[in-house]
């Protein structure tokens, strides 16, 4: 049932405020994060996170959170590479697998590889009755509800939600965060569904940019810090459903090659909230504009003002705590892909050549 929406993907994008609020309440009790007994990070020296596709970009985002907030080193890899590399798993390691379906063949094989090597196996899944959930020591449901669109949307934000809660838990277990700081972080997270609504209200400006972009053959996505994994997620979403070739780069890598691609025909999506890395990203953006590149800047009001007039188009999101920007900025990335696909007339829910669950390697 599409609940009146034209596509499941649209429904799944637009229900994110409600879904996130419900998903969050399943893990919170006042100022406490409710997690299964024994899920403690004080004896952990390293986390290995493995997944495919969008779930992998959720892991990459979590790496920034775990390392910055909890001081806990994280290795991330795509499951198809991890499983055949025979990666050594150091002592006091936790292995963590993220999968919407819980049935992805490569992710399951990577999990089986870690059995007996890692101290414990965690998974973050949407389908609680899945193989990956069953074979984990602890499976954490993301509570996104059934996701039908092949392009993952609400599962991504709900994966981020659980991973962020785990990073906060790790930070408090490891004495990196006081209970007051934790309470503040949780209050910000509780306010996020409301902020999601405000972000979805910017739909018209995203749709307009998407229509203007739909004729492009190639699109670049740039981001720094927490926006770097999200740039990948935005590019993946656009490729999957609009068939426009899209690539993501860390903003700082621009000069090391991809800037050679820039001309008037290549739109560049820059995701840059006004955080401690903003000025650096703006200077990369100016390098793009100086070469005729058309920049779509996704930022907040302070960022939009600081970026100046020469930007091709700007989408202005509400300001949130810098740590929460991956969840919030996921929404315009999803909407951009959705509207580009609509403009191109592609099959949004069932893009060519793709399956919702990839059970063969
Ligand atoms: O079910 P999983 O989360 O394990 O699936 C992983 C990928 O196949 C999946 O995220 C894929 O990349 C999506 N189509 C992305 O929109």
Write the topology of this structure:
Elements lengths: L7 H7 L1 H10 L2 E2 L2 E2 L12 E6 L1 H18 L3 E5 H4 L10 E7 L5 H10 L5 E6 L5 H4 L3 E4 L12 H20 L5 H22 L2 H11 L4 E6 L3 H16 L2 E6 L16 E5 L6 H13 L3 E7 H7 L5 E5 L7 H20 L17
Parallel strand pairs: 3-4, 3-5, 5-6, 6-7, 8-9, 8-10, 10-11, 11-12
Antiparallel strand pairs: 1-2
Helix pairs in contact: 2-7, 2-8, 3-7, 3-10, 7-13, 8-13, 9-13, 10-13
Explain how this protein is built.
The chain is built from 13 helices and twelve strands. The protein is of the alpha/beta class. The strands form three sheets. Strands 4-3-5-6-7 form a five-stranded parallel sheet, with helices on both faces. The protein has a five-stranded parallel sheet with strand order 9-8-10-11-12, sandwiched between helices. Strands 1-2 form a two-stranded antiparallel sheet. It has helices at 8-14, 16-25, 53-70, 79-82, 105-114, 131-134, 154-173, 179-200, 203-213, 227-242, 278-290, 301-307, 325-344; strands spanning 28-29, 32-33, 46-51, 74-78, 93-99, 120-125, 138-141, 218-223, 245-250, 267-271, 294-300, 313-317. Helix 7 (154-173) runs antiparallel to helix 13 (325-344) and helix 8 runs parallel beside helix 13 (325-344). It is globular, with a radius of gyration of 20 Å. The chain is 45% helix and 17% strand. The site of 5-amino-5-deoxy-1-O-phosphono-D-mannitol has 17 residues, from helix 3 and helix 10. Its EC number is 2.6.1.16. It catalyses: D-fructose 6-phosphate + L-glutamine = D-glucosamine 6-phosphate + L-glutamate.
